[in-house]
Design goal:
- The strands form 2 sheets. This protein has a 7-stranded parallel sheet with strand order 1-4-5-6-7-8-9. A two-stranded antiparallel sheet has the order 2-3.
- The chain is of the alpha/beta class.
- Helices cover 48% and strands 15% of the residues.
């Protein structure tokens, strides 16, 4: 099953794309991340549920990142519910990505938040998993569907026996819990082969695909699916 992660970029006054490392810290400093997360969620649903794309978009799963600030926002789950009712897109094809650091820092509110959103059909991925110090101790208390293994454990996995051992332990725990694993920063065929060998479920990175405009990707998916249907006929 193919998944897409929704990424956000800002467009400056000259029309150039501004990477998140330049505007996200500023947004966090001025408590604007919850507002940005709301915009991204609503805009994503608008695109996915549009008449032009919904039939094709529904064949895939879509991951949307949330900040720690949004996880602590008690009104956000109501906003999610309102948007899901407003736009005709299956919630089971969506999942929110929350970093391990944010989950630990806001543990109680995160646990409540996950349970509430989970009841709507939306799933969860724990992002950058393995970067924290107490990963396994709290994991069983969270309603997690995917573990996204931190890229720092993936980059050198072909040559590092330590990284291999750590990723195997994550994979084994995930398997026991019935949780799927996703490896980030997969940037070579050799890494991809090693992960397949280790039975990691999904891979994400430049070896798979580079980021591009969501509108363009949806258009290409639509055209490709239509071509396959015509060819089949």
């Amino acid at each position: 099953e193919t998944h897409y992660e929704i990424l956000v970029r800002m467009i400056d006054e000259s029309g150039a794309l501004v990477p998140p490392i330049e505007f996200i810290p500023v947004a966090e400093r001025y408590n604007l991340m919850s507002m940005i997360d709301r915009w991204v969620f609503k805009r994503t649903l608008q695109l996915l549920s549009s008449k032009e794309y919904i039939d094709h978009a529904s064949q895939f799963k879509w991951g949307i990142n949330l900040s720690g600030m949004t996880v602590s926002d008690e009104e956000f789950h109501e906003y999610v519910s309102e948007c899901l009712h407003e736009y005709d897109f299956l919630p089971t094809r969506l999942y929110f990505e929350i970093t391990e650091t944010s989950a630990i820092k806001n543990f109680k509110s995160c646990m409540t938040f996950m349970n509430e959103i989970h009841s709507m059909g939306v799933q969860f991925a724990l992002d950058d998993f393995g970067s924290g110090l107490s990963s396994f101790s709290y994991l069983k208390k969270l309603s997690v569907d995917y573990l996204k293994i931190d890229g720092g454990l993936i980059r050198d996995i072909v040559s590092s026996r330590l990284d291999q051992a750590m990723v195997r332990s994550i994979s084994e725990i995930a398997g026991v819990m019935g949780v799927k694993t996703i490896a980030e920063y997969v940037e070579s065929e050799a890494i991809l082969e090693k992960l397949a060998e280790m039975q990691i479920d999904y891979a994400q990175g430049y070896e798979i695909m580079r980021p591009q405009s969501m509108e363009l990707e949806l258009k290409q998916l639509s055209e490709h699916t239509s071509f396959k249907l015509r060819s089949g006929n």
